[in-house]
Write a structure and sequence with these properties.
This protein has seven helices and 24 strands. The protein is α+β, with helices and mostly antiparallel strands and 416 residues long. The longest helix has 17 residues. It folds into three domains: 91 residues, no CATH class; 67 residues, GMP Synthetase, Chain A, domain 3, CATH 3.30.300; 236 residues, Thrombin, subunit H (Beta Barrel). The chain has a seven-stranded antiparallel β-sheet with strand order 10-9-13-14-16-12-11, with no helix packed on it. The protein has a six-stranded antiparallel β-barrel with strand order 19-20-21-24-23-22. Strands 1-2-3 form a three-stranded mixed β-sheet.
Length: 416
């Protein structure tokens, strides 16, 4: 079984404890988090902490599940506040000397967004685990040297300190279009087929207003960003259609979207069941076993499920999340980037504020539900997977759209 790191509940407890401690000491009242887009992300939670802690540079979890914090002056007021929390948290807060406040890193990330339009740029992130803005560049590009030269020129013209930016080689993110039998009622994580030849994974069942259906990737439709009435089949050989696409939000251009790109906050669409009895709320298929790279796609019996009991906001770096997909089955991995802007390889599409995970995924896993595993086969939903790659230093990785991003575009969803 996977190693579990500190829960998101501990993150909330840390935020509350920090704010309470500093307020009692005469600090400022909590400020409203930065409103960069239509969703509240892990970055927003860190900004809130930074407005209460002088010199706050970021929070992440290490391999042992311990909270780590960057402070510009560990011996100052922020460091004293953190030390006073160790007993209440039940975990030692490890303090590192940082060079930049986290909120400033976020402002620099926004200034650097136009660079996502340059050839060879894969992603852009304010990395709380390194206290730097990190730009991912395509390790496999045939024009890698030229790409990097263009990027360096772009950095020279930006009002951002060069020492605050790290360039690192990574693999570009590709859509993972590629469990396979007829399952009734239909659970999240099961196979869906569309347009005659394409295969994806059903994300999760939900009510969108009065319509009962399922969430899928927008690229698992006929025309992404438009409602085209795509019909979906579950299982192979075909047992007939189960639903029809009814919502697929359009893309934005201009403003924060880099020139020549089309942007969204989630790769999501919604299909309505032909018959409400085909699906049921709150069920994700539970294969026999999980693995970091490849897990089982077989079920002990067709009715075995993870029961979705709730939802979680954007995870933090170091959290362990799980996914179930029709190709690589049940896999789990560690979040290594949050609220990263990610270019979709081979397209003109940029997805804002996505989460990246070091864990298994493969063609056909697009749409896989991403979730936290709880005791007694329960789960809390986090989002849906849409892309992945093999990174030269991290191995197999995937990207998912957080649930809050999905609801910001599809509207409120009832998931259990």
């Amino acid at each position: 079984m996977p190693r579990h790191l500190l829960s998101p509940l501990m993150v909330a407890r840390l935020v509350v404890a920090l704010v309470s401690s500093l307020t009692l000491a005469g600090g400022a009242a909590a400020a409203t988090p930065r409103e960069e887009g239509p969703v509240r992300s892990a970055d927003d939670e860190l900004v809130l902490m930074g407005r209460e802690i002088p010199g706050f540079g970021g929070l992440y979890y290490d391999e042992q599940g311990r909270p780590n914090v960057y402070l510009l002056d560990p011996a100052g007021a922020g460091g004293a506040a953190l030390k006073s929390l160790n007993a209440s948290l039940g975990a030692e807060v490890i303090v590192h000397r940082g060079d930049f406040e986290f909120e400033r890193l976020l402002s620099w990330r926004l200034k650097l967004r136009p660079l996502l339009a340059l050839p060879g740029v894969v992603s852009l992130d304010a990395d709380e685990s390194r206290n730097r803005v990190v730009i991912g560049v395509d390790a496999a590009s045939r024009t890698k040297s030229l790409d990097r030269d263009r990027l360096e020129l772009g950095l020279l013209s930006a009002d951002v300190p060069r020492e605050a930016v790290v360039l690192e080689e990574t693999a570009r993110i590709e859509e993972l279009v590629g469990l396979r039998d007829k399952l009734r009622p239909v659970p999240g994580g099961s196979q869906i087929l569309f347009n005659g030849v394409f295969v994806c994974t059903l994300g999760f069942n939900a009510f969108r207003g009065n319509d009962f259906g399922f969430v899928i990737n927008g690229h698992c439709t006929g025309i992404r960003g438009e409602v085209d009435g795509m019909r979906y089949i579950e299982g192979q050989p075909s047992s007939g259609a189960i639903g029809t696409e009814i919502a697929d939000p359009g893309f934005s251009t201009g403003g924060p979207c880099p020139v020549g790109r089309r942007c969204r906050f989630s790769d999501s669409a919604f299909a309505k069941y032909d018959n409400p009895r085909l699906g049921v709320l709150g069920g994700i298929a539970r294969p026999l076993s999980g693995g970091s790279e490849i897990g089982s796609v077989s079920l002990k019996n067709p009715a075995t499920r993870f029961a979705v009991t709730g939802r979680v906001g954007s995870p933090l770096v170091g959290d362990v999340v799980h996914k179930v997909g029709r190709t690589t089955g049940w896999t789990y991995g560690t979040v290594y980037a949050t609220c990263a802007d990610v270019n979709n390889g081979g397209t003109d599409i940029t997805q804002f504020c996505q989460s990246r995970v070091r864990g298994g995924g493969g063609p056909g896993d697009s749409g896989s539900p991403v979730f936290y595993v709880l005791p007694k086969n329960k789960a809390k939903l986090v989002g849906i997977l849409w892309g992945g790659s093999t990174d030269p230093s991290l191995g197999t990785v995937y990207v998912f759209s957080p649930l809050e991003n999905i609801e910001a575009e599809l509207g409120p969803l009832r998931i259990n």
